[in-house]
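Feature request, filed as a ticket because there's no other form

It would be nice if the structure record came with a short human-readable summary line next to the tokens. Right now we just get the raw output. Example of a typical job, pasted below so the devs can see what we mean:
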Amino acid sequence: MTDSFIPPFESASREGSSPPAYAPSPAPTNTHTTLASKTSSKKRKRATGPASSPVPPDSGHGGQPTPPPQPLLAGSVLADSCTIREPTFIPIAEGSEFCGTDQFPTNRMGYRYFPAGLNSSDGIMTFKTIETAPTEFRVSWEDRSPFVKVTRDGLGLLGDKGFRSARCNAPVREGCWYMEVKVECGGGDCTQDSNKAEGSHVRIGWGRREAPLNGPVGLDGYSYGVRDKTGEKVTLSRPRPYGKPFRSGDVIGMYIALPPRRKANKNDPHDPAHLKRQRIPIDLKSQAFFEALEYPQAKEMSSLMDYSGKSVNSAPVPSSSKKSATVKNLPERGRPNASNPEATPLRPLPVLPSSRIAFFVNGECQGIAFQDLYDYLPLRPNNHSQKKEKRRTREGAHEHRENPFDDGQLGYYPFISLFNDARVRLNPGPVFEYPPPPDIDGFLTGAGQQADSKDRTWRPMCERYREYMEEQWALDHIDAESAKVEAVKREAQEKAEADKKEHRRKQAEARRRKKLAAKQQVSTPPLDDDRFGPSATLNFPNVGQPSPLRYGVAYEVEEMGAEPENSPTPAFTPAPEPGGAPSGYSSDNGMDMDDAVGEPAESHHSPAPYLYQAKNFVWVDDTPANRHP
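Raw output as currently delivered:
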């Protein structure tokens, strides 16, 4: 995946939600967007056949668990081939504007989900990023706790019990952005039909993807917020004095400023700023969704929550003096020290310079709440993590893997936390009830009062959604090109393997034929092979001399009646046969033996075989009839 800047596609109309017609679908492969089935996991039981990781039960739909998703199979046809999808709204009560959403999974248990659309490009079936109605900036249908109820336009939020949170559907990655949140019920107020001992409270702020949804904003270092009860700012669960409190009817302005996004180092393959997706399309209730691992919380960020200053990664200590059968002497996974020099050192936590967050209460600026925010990019993996990832690759693991790179969805999201029956309404702009100064940064840093006629240096959050979707479609275009290249490589590899297999088959066939031919040549030697001469028994000890009845053998002699040199000695003395040599046999010089002139060299009482003279050749008659019994 290249990290070079890709100009965004032309903006689609506000009424339509599909990407431009020329925006290809995302790629398969390492980005996990192909029709892929996953192998069974050793930690989870799987049904027969390929299956994907399970979706956590959705307790927000009457306690009915959501069925586990199934991996999409090649050739499957989904009912949601359109490019716009809308959840099924279930009102919490008759006539209520607040609803729960059905047919949509929620991000829990380390997994996150977002809609996918089926697309085929150049014969390659892939999936693309699609939108959900309404196609504008709002709360995310998937990226929220199921206890947070919403209105159909996605701008109204209602809490249920305890602190539950929700993120909006577009992050801030760079630039200056502003939005408003109106508190309809908060600050400790109780509704008329509420039977809870405590009132309703609201926390508002900005959070990253790693911030949990089942807790309030400011719970850890991944989010920054402000409390309604005291007006305190809070992060890492540590409230600090900040501004004045707010309650029902107040309008809270949220401002964030981030520096330009850092470009990835092309010479560093482990730079987290590289863009790379790790997602798998799954089938959930006959609808396609992308499933991806949520970015995990780093131990370096968790260590910031330790008030004692001790390492939070120390090994457990057995309760008795005896060695435990289950707890071994594990090294401490904390900071290296004299007692633990081999401990993995904590990685540095980079920050975004000149970044800041500020809040407004009914148009009154409360000042800078946080500055030099932690960078939203994942921490660089250490050597141990890289070796572990390589080992998993060698073993052929096809399960989800943690993504150490930016997948295009990182950033700071508007993060709303509601306690009990708290109720708020979002206003992403462009018209605000309390417009902020044109230059909020200049106002916060004390650069002087800004005139109303000065150009605005910030943007309303309503403009961020369309920009974010264009970024996703640009990444889809990159993935589609990668899919084509990988398809060509895969086809070439399959062809090379087929050619190699065919070559091995031909080699085996040639060896088999050669072995069979050698066996036939030994069992049936050719007639014109001169190796079957006088020294045939020497060349082929396992093959006897040929019979004169089948092979006429003539030996050249120097004079009539003399024994041919190196002639074979007959095993038996044949009896004389009148008539001479058999008719139809020829000597080596082509002469017919019937035309031979001469008399037998020896008497028929001689024990030697008859010798017939034909010029310089002598016929040796060694037929069975001429042998003595």
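Something like this underneath would help us a lot:
DSSP finds five helices and 27 strands in the chain.
The helical segments are 299-303, 383-394, 440-445, 462-523, 536-539.
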